[in-house]
Specification:
By secondary structure, this protein is of the alpha/beta class. α1 runs parallel beside α3, α2 packs antiparallel against α3 and α8 runs antiparallel to α9. It is globular, with a radius of gyration of 25 Å.
Length: 533
């Protein structure tokens, strides 16, 4: 065996350059890797809303990882950084307008903010992903590389969910939100399981296509290398179709009528005392159009004042709550016992009394609080910063326990699993995406597509009210219905069922990723001990 040959008999592409020909080959490999990473980033963007060419997502992991593996690990890491940063900037280009409107940045500051977020939440995780794959893939057999790449991809997404307070925005699996047979496995392993399947198929195929060794293309070798991906894909689709057949049958659980109200109130009118009553009356008029309903849900920031400090507006709130037999859910600020403001959700009973509250636990850094200093008391209406809430009793109507989460909290699987474990039989999400919308509708559409997985992973109906859209209901099998388009004012009514029980994902969470990591470690150890042929 030559000095720079790998254990599987292929050339070691990370070997030192010893000749002008090798140097030219290295430059060519670097160019292919850079082009592959850039192309993968753009395909990933096009696979996400608002474009939603979901099939392109199945090309991304293989194109990115296999092209980067052809370089030394540190060079592969640079490709990973470029891939993640480019994808972050193009997928979330709407952040520029959001930072201009919300933070008051100039153009340079807004662009700098977009790049900084892209680096933190996409550049760094994908740097580690590419380095890990380039380092470990040569140590395992070719048929095992798809499994290795898929596990590393899922692990990097889990890392992104937690690093720097976490931002699991548009994970790979989220691109499949409309493909029911694919995303049903979210109740087994969350959206990470969907990403795992996509990466497994993609990396396995691309590794095979990249192998120029004629012996690697014998029928037996090809079948052996692609068998793990084929088996997992068939099992995923089979499970998905079985779940779809269940969805078509009558479901158990008590049926309720729920209405969502979308006021589409301009952000320029928020937190201004002279508009308190005007904004509230907008929601009250829409609520009167609903008719009979068991529960009515208004969005985050539906009221921009401390309810207990505006007794003159109580009659309007009471009249709106009386429309629903089980109450009205609405978002607004709440002054806590410690004198600190919370971004909160209220449940008002049909009699107008406060039956329960929920304070947002996972706040958005810099937008809702400054992580560099302690939160101060904000006694005036229109708080500048909020304090994080505590895990307390869930709001309860006379017949339902509501799993309430505010805005992007619904993207964090641990919070969804927490409310389900505490007895929630209906998920309720209030949000305000209007400040994210640059006019393209990308951010609201992306946000709505991701909450679909919360419903599937927990097998609960989900009710979502957004200030300017997209609002609507989602079935436990990920089917949106009774939706209200973004940037419109209106209501939508639909039926839901109060469900119980816990899915495997609610019970065990991401423990399967830990088990997968131990198996990958075992593969590496066995691969290094394998005698050279």
């Amino acid at each position: 065996m030559s000095e720079h040959q790998t254990t599987d008999g292929t050339a070691d592409l990370a070997a030192p350059i010893t000749s002008p020909l090798a140097e030219r080959w290295a430059i060519s490999r670097a160019g292919v890797a850079v082009a592959g990473s850039a192309t993968a980033a753009l395909l990933f963007t096009i696979a996400c809303p608002p474009y939603e060419h979901w099939l392109l997502a199945w090309m991304v992991p293989g194109l990115f990882l296999v092209s980067a593996r052809r370089l030394a690990p540190w060079r592969a890491a640079l490709c990973g950084f470029a891939f993640g940063t480019l994808w972050g900037c193009t997928m979330a280009g709407w952040m520029r307008q959001a930072s201009l409107a919300y933070f008051g940045f100039n153009d340079a500051g807004a662009m700098g903010f977009v790049v900084l977020v892209a680096v933190a939440y996409a550049g760094i995780p994908n740097t580690l992903l590419a380095y890990g794959y380039a380092s470990m893939a040569p140590q395992v057999r070719p048929w095992q590389r798809g499994l290795l790449g898929a596990w590393l991809w899922a692990a990097s997404e889990l890392f992104r969910t937690h690093v720097f307070t976490g931002l699991p925005w548009e994970l790979l699996g989220h691109t499949q939100f409309q493909i029911l047979p694919v995303h049903q496995i979210a109740d087994l392993g969350g959206v990470y399981a969907v990403s795992f399947v996509i990466a497994l198929v993609s990396v396995s195929l691309c590794e095979q296509l990249a192998d120029r060794n004629a012996r690697s293309w014998s029928p037996g070798t090809v079948i052996g290398r692609l068998a793990p991906a084929a088996i997992v894909l068939v099992a995923t689709l089979g499970y998905g179709m079985w779940c779809e057949s269940i969805h078509a049958r009558p479901q158990h659980g008590e049926e309720k009528t729920v209405a969502v109200v979308q006021g589409n109130v301009s952000n320029t009118l928020r937190w201004k005392r002279e508009y308190f009553e005007r904004n509230l009356l907008t929601y009250a008029r829409l609520t009167r159009q609903v008719g009979a309903a068991d529960l009515i849900v208004w969005p985050e920031n539906a009221v921009n004042f401390y309810i207990e400090r505006e007794p003159a507006l109580f009659p309007v709130l009471n009249a709106s709550a009386a429309v629903a037999s089980e109450g009205l859910v609405l978002g607004g600020p709440r002054m806590g016992d410690t004198g600190r403001s919370h971004n909160s959700l209220y449940l008002l009973g049909a009699d107008g009394g406060v039956r329960g509250t929920y304070d947002k636990r996972h706040l958005l850094p810099f937008a809702e609080y400054n992580p560099l200093r302690a939160v101060e008391a904000t006694p005036l209406a229109g708080p500048i910063e909020f304090a994080s809430g505590a895990s307390e009793d869930l709001p309860r109507t006379p017949t339902a326990t509501l799993g309430t989460l505010i805005c992007y909290e619904m993207l964090f699987p641990s919070l969804v699993r927490d409310v389900i474990a505490r007895g929630a039989d209906l998920l309720v999400n209030v949000s305000n995406d209007s400040w994210l919308d640059d006019g393209s509708g990308a951010a609201p559409r992306q946000h709505f597509s991701m909450v679909v997985f919360s419903a599937v992973s927990a097998r609960r109906y989900l009710v979502r009210a957004s200030a300017s859209g997209v609002s609507g209901l989602v079935s436990p099998y990920g089917v949106p219905y009774a939706t209200i388009p973004r940037a419109t004012r209106g209501t939508a009514t639909g039926t839901v069922r109060l469900l119980s029980g816990q899915t495997p994902y609610v019970r065990w969470g991401e423990s399967w990723i830990v088990v997968g990591g131990l198996l990958c470690l075992l593969l590496l150890v066995c691969g290094r001990r394998r005698p050279l042929q």
